[in-house]
């Protein structure tokens, strides 16, 4: 688990930061909403406290942690393997030995741009749409199945006929 809050838990904290920025727009740079994403920025993200003290600092930390987690969840990892000769020197290139051959490899991580702060409302709305769609389709399906079965809360009369 990369983030401690889902979008429903995060959105009120995002709203707290937004209200603060509406009142103090000049603080956007100080709060590092748009960067720079330097060592000081990442040090603030190490605060894993879960007790909301009502401050903008707590809300901002959770929002930034969420953005980093969403970035990590969305990044791509590319692994390239290429066969190399058994006697080829591996001083420069890392090599993975296997039972029959050796492979030179490289690993790259792509799309590590921090997810935009402004995308949080969109993610919140999208999550709501997904939940609503799921509720409509699954609940409707469950209700249709339940209507054909005996429900514990319903009265049931057993009628016997002579045979």
TrEMBL record:
> Could you state one GO biological process linked to this protein?
inositol phosphate biosynthetic process
Per UniProt, which keywords does this protein have?
A: ATP-binding, Kinase, Nucleotide-binding, Transferase
Recorded catalytic activity of this chain's protein: 1D-myo-inositol 1,3,4,5,6-pentakisphosphate + ATP = 1D-myo-inositol hexakisphosphate + ADP + H(+)
What protein am I looking at? Inositol-pentakisphosphate 2-kinase
Report the EC number(s), separated by commas if there are several: 2.7.1.158
Segments crossing the lipid bilayer: none
Q: Which InterPro entries match?
A: Ins_P5_2-kin (IPR009286)
GO (cellular component) term, any one: nucleus
Encoded by which gene? IPPK
How far does the signal peptide extend, from start to end residue?
A: none
Q: Which residues form a coiled coil?
A: none
The source's domain of life comes to Eukaryota
Q: Recall the GO molecular function terms of this protein's record.
A: ATP binding; inositol-1,3,4,5,6-pentakisphosphate 2-kinase activity
Q: What is known of its domains?
A: The EXKPK motif is conserved in inositol-pentakisphosphate 2-kinases of both family 1 and 2.
């Amino acid at each position: 688990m990369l983030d401690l809050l889902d979008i429903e838990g995060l959105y009120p904290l995002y709203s707290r930061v937004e209200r603060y920025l509406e009142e103090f727009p000049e603080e956007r740079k100080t709060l590092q909403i748009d960067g720079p994403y330097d060592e000081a920025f990442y040090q603030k993200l190490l605060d894993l406290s879960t007790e909301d003290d009502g401050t903008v600092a707590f809300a901002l930390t959770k929002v930034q942690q969420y953005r980093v987690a969403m970035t990590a969840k969305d990044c791509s990892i590319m692994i390239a393997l290429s066969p190399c000769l058994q006697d080829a020197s591996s001083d420069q290139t890392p090599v993975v030995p296997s039972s029959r051959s050796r492979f030179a490899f490289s690993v790259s991580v792509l799309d590590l741009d921090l997810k935009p702060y402004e995308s949080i409302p969109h993610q919140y709305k999208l999550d709501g749409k997904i939940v609503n769609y799921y509720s409509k389709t699954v609940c409707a399906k469950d209700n249709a199945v339940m209507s054909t079965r005996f429900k514990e809360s319903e009265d049931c009369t057993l009628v016997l006929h002579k045979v």
